[in-house]
Amino acid sequence: MHPDTNLVIQIQSLDQKITALEKEVAALPKHVAVIEKTLESHLKKLEADKAALTANQKERKAKEGEIAMHEQKISKLKEQMLGAKNNEQYKAFQNEIDFIGKEIRKAEDRILELMTESEPLDQNVKKAEAALKEEKQHVEKEKTQARERTALDQAELTKLREERKEALSKLSKTTVSSYEKIRRKSGIVIAEVEAGRCTACQIQLRPQYFQELRRGDQLMFCENCGRFLFYNPPVNFENAITGN
Protein backbone atom coordinates (compact mmCIF):
# COMPACT_ATOMS: atom_id res chain seq x y z
CA MET A 1 0.00 0.00 0.00
CA HIS A 2 1.30 3.45 -0.91
CA PRO A 3 2.41 5.36 2.23
CA ASP A 4 0.17 8.33 1.33
CA THR A 5 -2.78 5.96 1.31
CA ASN A 6 -2.26 5.28 5.01
CA LEU A 7 -2.21 9.03 5.63
CA VAL A 8 -5.45 9.50 3.71
CA ILE A 9 -7.07 6.72 5.77
CA GLN A 10 -5.76 8.34 8.96
CA ILE A 11 -7.03 11.79 7.98
CA GLN A 12 -10.45 10.40 7.05
CA SER A 13 -10.66 8.70 10.45
CA LEU A 14 -9.71 11.98 12.14
CA ASP A 15 -12.31 13.87 10.11
CA GLN A 16 -15.02 11.41 11.11
CA LYS A 17 -14.12 11.84 14.79
CA ILE A 18 -13.97 15.63 14.40
CA THR A 19 -17.37 15.72 12.70
CA ALA A 20 -18.94 13.57 15.41
CA LEU A 21 -17.52 15.78 18.16
CA GLU A 22 -18.57 18.98 16.38
CA LYS A 23 -22.12 17.63 16.12
CA GLU A 24 -22.10 16.75 19.82
CA VAL A 25 -20.82 20.22 20.76
CA ALA A 26 -23.49 21.83 18.58
CA ALA A 27 -26.21 19.58 20.04
CA LEU A 28 -25.42 20.29 23.70
CA PRO A 29 -26.81 23.88 23.73
CA LYS A 30 -29.95 22.60 21.99
CA HIS A 31 -30.30 19.93 24.66
CA VAL A 32 -29.95 22.57 27.38
CA ALA A 33 -32.55 24.74 25.61
CA VAL A 34 -35.01 21.82 25.60
CA ILE A 35 -34.66 21.15 29.33
CA GLU A 36 -34.86 24.88 30.08
CA LYS A 37 -38.10 24.96 28.10
CA THR A 38 -39.39 22.15 30.32
CA LEU A 39 -38.37 24.23 33.34
CA GLU A 40 -40.29 27.17 31.89
CA SER A 41 -43.43 25.00 31.59
CA HIS A 42 -43.08 24.05 35.29
CA LEU A 43 -42.74 27.74 36.17
CA LYS A 44 -45.85 28.64 34.16
CA LYS A 45 -47.77 25.83 35.86
CA LEU A 46 -46.77 27.18 39.28
CA GLU A 47 -47.75 30.72 38.28
CA ALA A 48 -51.15 29.50 37.04
CA ASP A 49 -51.77 27.51 40.25
CA LYS A 50 -50.75 30.47 42.41
CA ALA A 51 -53.01 32.77 40.40
CA ALA A 52 -55.96 30.39 40.91
CA LEU A 53 -55.29 30.21 44.65
CA THR A 54 -54.90 34.00 44.90
CA ALA A 55 -58.17 34.53 43.02
CA ASN A 56 -59.89 32.12 45.42
CA GLN A 57 -58.54 33.94 48.46
CA LYS A 58 -59.38 37.33 46.98
CA GLU A 59 -63.00 36.31 46.34
CA ARG A 60 -63.30 34.88 49.85
CA LYS A 61 -62.05 38.14 51.31
CA ALA A 62 -64.50 40.07 49.13
CA LYS A 63 -67.40 37.87 50.28
CA GLU A 64 -66.36 38.30 53.91
CA GLY A 65 -66.37 42.07 53.32
CA GLU A 66 -69.84 41.83 51.79
CA ILE A 67 -71.12 39.93 54.84
CA ALA A 68 -69.64 42.53 57.20
CA MET A 69 -71.28 45.32 55.19
CA HIS A 70 -74.64 43.49 55.12
CA GLU A 71 -74.48 42.89 58.87
CA GLN A 72 -73.89 46.60 59.43
CA LYS A 73 -76.92 47.38 57.27
CA ILE A 74 -79.06 44.91 59.22
CA SER A 75 -77.91 46.46 62.48
CA LYS A 76 -78.92 49.93 61.28
CA LEU A 77 -82.24 48.66 59.91
CA LYS A 78 -83.03 47.04 63.25
CA GLU A 79 -82.34 50.33 65.00
CA GLN A 80 -84.58 52.14 62.52
CA MET A 81 -87.22 49.45 62.92
CA LEU A 82 -87.64 50.45 66.58
CA GLY A 83 -88.85 53.83 65.37
CA ALA A 84 -91.41 52.44 62.92
CA LYS A 85 -94.65 54.42 63.17
CA ASN A 86 -96.93 51.78 61.76
CA ASN A 87 -97.15 48.15 60.79
CA GLU A 88 -96.41 48.85 57.14
CA GLN A 89 -93.10 50.56 57.96
CA TYR A 90 -92.23 47.70 60.32
CA LYS A 91 -92.91 45.12 57.57
CA ALA A 92 -90.86 47.15 55.06
CA PHE A 93 -87.89 47.13 57.42
CA GLN A 94 -88.38 43.42 58.06
CA ASN A 95 -88.55 42.62 54.34
CA GLU A 96 -85.32 44.50 53.71
CA ILE A 97 -83.66 42.73 56.64
CA ASP A 98 -84.83 39.36 55.26
CA PHE A 99 -83.51 40.22 51.78
CA ILE A 100 -80.12 41.22 53.17
CA GLY A 101 -80.11 38.05 55.28
CA LYS A 102 -80.55 35.99 52.12
CA GLU A 103 -77.62 37.84 50.56
CA ILE A 104 -75.52 37.01 53.62
CA ARG A 105 -76.43 33.34 53.35
CA LYS A 106 -75.54 33.36 49.65
CA ALA A 107 -72.18 34.90 50.47
CA GLU A 108 -71.61 32.35 53.25
CA ASP A 109 -72.47 29.48 50.91
CA ARG A 110 -70.05 30.84 48.37
CA ILE A 111 -67.33 31.14 51.03
CA LEU A 112 -67.86 27.48 51.93
CA GLU A 113 -67.51 26.56 48.24
CA LEU A 114 -64.35 28.63 47.98
CA MET A 115 -62.91 27.00 51.11
CA THR A 116 -63.62 23.58 49.61
CA GLU A 117 -61.95 24.64 46.35
CA SER A 118 -58.96 26.22 48.10
CA GLU A 119 -57.62 22.96 49.54
CA PRO A 120 -56.85 21.27 46.18
CA LEU A 121 -55.63 24.64 44.85
CA ASP A 122 -53.22 24.91 47.75
CA GLN A 123 -52.07 21.31 47.13
CA ASN A 124 -51.56 22.13 43.45
CA VAL A 125 -49.31 25.05 44.39
CA LYS A 126 -47.24 22.89 46.75
CA LYS A 127 -46.91 20.14 44.14
CA ALA A 128 -45.96 22.67 41.46
CA GLU A 129 -43.35 24.22 43.79
CA ALA A 130 -41.87 20.79 44.50
CA ALA A 131 -41.85 19.88 40.79
CA LEU A 132 -40.22 23.21 39.91
CA LYS A 133 -37.55 22.73 42.57
CA GLU A 134 -36.80 19.22 41.32
CA GLU A 135 -36.71 20.39 37.70
CA LYS A 136 -34.35 23.25 38.58
CA GLN A 137 -31.95 20.78 40.19
CA HIS A 138 -32.20 18.53 37.13
CA VAL A 139 -31.58 21.44 34.77
CA GLU A 140 -28.56 22.65 36.74
CA LYS A 141 -27.14 19.12 36.75
CA GLU A 142 -27.69 18.77 32.99
CA LYS A 143 -26.16 22.20 32.33
CA THR A 144 -23.11 21.34 34.44
CA GLN A 145 -22.70 18.04 32.59
CA ALA A 146 -23.14 19.83 29.26
CA ARG A 147 -20.44 22.38 30.15
CA GLU A 148 -18.07 19.62 31.27
CA ARG A 149 -18.81 17.55 28.16
CA THR A 150 -18.27 20.59 25.92
CA ALA A 151 -14.94 21.35 27.58
CA LEU A 152 -13.79 17.76 27.06
CA ASP A 153 -15.01 17.75 23.46
CA GLN A 154 -13.29 21.06 22.72
CA ALA A 155 -10.03 19.75 24.17
CA GLU A 156 -10.34 16.57 22.09
CA LEU A 157 -11.19 18.63 19.00
CA THR A 158 -8.07 20.73 19.48
CA LYS A 159 -5.96 17.58 19.71
CA LEU A 160 -7.58 15.93 16.67
CA ARG A 161 -7.28 19.09 14.57
CA GLU A 162 -3.58 19.28 15.39
CA GLU A 163 -3.15 15.62 14.40
CA ARG A 164 -5.06 16.31 11.17
CA LYS A 165 -2.91 19.34 10.41
CA GLU A 166 0.24 17.33 10.96
CA ALA A 167 -0.99 14.46 8.77
CA LEU A 168 -2.01 16.84 5.98
CA SER A 169 1.43 18.48 6.04
CA LYS A 170 2.94 15.15 4.96
CA LEU A 171 0.83 15.04 1.78
CA SER A 172 1.44 16.95 -1.42
CA LYS A 173 -0.72 20.03 -2.11
CA THR A 174 -2.30 18.19 -5.04
CA THR A 175 -3.30 15.23 -2.86
CA VAL A 176 -4.64 17.56 -0.14
CA SER A 177 -6.66 19.45 -2.75
CA SER A 178 -8.10 16.17 -4.09
CA TYR A 179 -8.86 15.00 -0.57
CA GLU A 180 -10.78 18.16 0.35
CA LYS A 181 -12.66 18.16 -2.95
CA ILE A 182 -13.84 14.55 -2.48
CA ARG A 183 -14.73 15.20 1.18
CA ARG A 184 -16.92 18.18 0.28
CA LYS A 185 -18.66 16.16 -2.40
CA SER A 186 -19.34 12.84 -0.70
CA GLY A 187 -18.00 12.80 2.85
CA ILE A 188 -16.35 9.40 2.37
CA VAL A 189 -12.94 10.07 0.82
CA ILE A 190 -11.32 6.66 0.58
CA ALA A 191 -12.86 3.24 -0.03
CA GLU A 192 -11.50 -0.26 0.25
CA VAL A 193 -11.46 -2.56 -2.75
CA GLU A 194 -12.76 -6.06 -2.10
CA ALA A 195 -12.90 -8.78 -4.75
CA GLY A 196 -11.87 -6.18 -7.31
CA ARG A 197 -14.88 -3.98 -6.47
CA CYS A 198 -15.03 -0.45 -4.98
CA THR A 199 -16.97 -0.87 -1.72
CA ALA A 200 -18.27 2.71 -1.91
CA CYS A 201 -19.99 2.64 -5.30
CA GLN A 202 -19.89 -1.16 -5.90
CA ILE A 203 -18.35 -0.78 -9.37
CA GLN A 204 -15.98 -3.54 -10.55
CA LEU A 205 -12.50 -2.24 -11.31
CA ARG A 206 -10.87 -3.05 -14.65
CA PRO A 207 -8.45 -5.98 -14.17
CA GLN A 208 -5.42 -3.97 -15.25
CA TYR A 209 -6.41 -1.05 -12.98
CA PHE A 210 -6.87 -3.46 -10.09
CA GLN A 211 -3.41 -4.90 -10.66
CA GLU A 212 -1.92 -1.40 -10.58
CA LEU A 213 -3.72 -0.74 -7.28
CA ARG A 214 -2.36 -3.97 -5.81
CA ARG A 215 1.20 -2.88 -6.59
CA GLY A 216 0.68 0.09 -4.23
CA ASP A 217 3.26 2.35 -5.87
CA GLN A 218 0.87 5.29 -6.39
CA LEU A 219 -2.34 6.87 -5.09
CA MET A 220 -5.29 5.72 -7.17
CA PHE A 221 -8.89 6.82 -7.54
CA CYS A 222 -12.07 4.95 -8.37
CA GLU A 223 -12.80 5.57 -12.05
CA ASN A 224 -16.50 5.72 -11.24
CA CYS A 225 -17.02 7.62 -7.95
CA GLY A 226 -13.65 9.41 -7.81
CA ARG A 227 -12.72 8.32 -4.28
CA PHE A 228 -9.25 7.28 -3.23
CA LEU A 229 -8.87 3.50 -3.23
CA PHE A 230 -6.92 1.12 -1.06
CA TYR A 231 -6.47 -2.61 -1.12
CA ASN A 232 -5.66 -4.92 1.78
CA PRO A 233 -4.64 -8.34 0.47
CA PRO A 234 -6.34 -11.22 2.30
CA VAL A 235 -4.27 -12.76 5.08
CA ASN A 236 -3.13 -16.36 4.61
CA PHE A 237 -3.59 -17.60 8.17
CA GLU A 238 -1.48 -20.70 7.59
CA ASN A 239 1.46 -18.56 6.51
CA ALA A 240 0.80 -16.14 9.35
CA ILE A 241 1.01 -18.96 11.89
CA THR A 242 4.11 -20.55 10.42
CA GLY A 243 5.77 -17.20 9.77
CA ASN A 244 6.24 -17.92 6.05
Description of the structure:
This protein has helices at residues 3-81, 87-169, 173-186, 207-215, 237-242, and strands at 190-194, 197-198, 220-221, 228-230. 78% of the residues lie in helices and 5% in strands. A four-stranded mixed sheet has the order 2-1-4-3. It is mostly helical and 244 residues long. The protein contains five helices and four strands, in the order H-H-H-E-E-H-E-E-H.
- Biggest β-sheet, characterized? 4 strands, mixed
Please state how the strands of the largest beta sheet are arranged side by side.
Answer: 2-1-4-3
CATH class of the largest domain: Mainly Alpha
H/E element sequence: HHHEEHEEH
Given the C-alpha coordinates, what overall shape results?
A: rod-shaped
Mean of all residue-level pLDDT scores:
92
Question: What CATH architecture of the largest domain do you see?
Answer: Orthogonal Bundle
Number of E-type strands: 4
Here the CATH topology of the largest domain equals Helix Hairpins
Q: What is the domain total for the residues? A: 2
Radius of gyration: 42 Å
What are the low-pLDDT stretches, counting only 5+ consecutive residues below 50? none
Strand-residue fraction?
under 5%
**Pairing-aware structural class of the strands and helices?**
mainly alpha
- Percent helix, as a range, is over 70%
Terminus-to-terminus distance:
20 Å
Count of runs of 4 or more consecutive helical residues:
5
